[in-house]
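Here is one chain, start to finish.
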Amino acid sequence: MINRFILLLCLTATPALADDWRPYANARFGYAIDLPGDFKVTAEADNGDGMTLTSKDGKAELRVFGANRMEDDFAAEVKSRVAMDKQDGWAIGYNKSSKTWASYSGSRKDRILYVRAIALCHDAIGYFTLDYPKAALTQYDPIVAHMVKTLAAPPRCG
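Its structure:
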């Protein structure tokens, strides 16, 4: 009986986390994304490019931000960011991209890093990065999937 209760508790806890979302739109760069409802804002950039959030248990960190492209094109910018993360010790195991989006993830010790980038207007790029424990992979998979779907560029460039 207690095993059924624990299983039920595990099955209901993850969807609650994944179903509680709040929209965020960045005025400076124009990107939008849904943020997990139980993540708390811990820092906001003075220049208005984004924010850092932390999970309720303090074990995951989410960064949502925009940046002006420093490289010649979107692909080169993402390649540069992947190289920086590798230099920081992340073993990148997944890396997919197109002309307008890129996703990559890696691990370091007991942590996972997921990065999503999208091309924005005026040579800018919108990002989210999520750093979380490997042990919580199944908990964060639906969160990452939802955020990938909702990270969006503005409909028109002005």
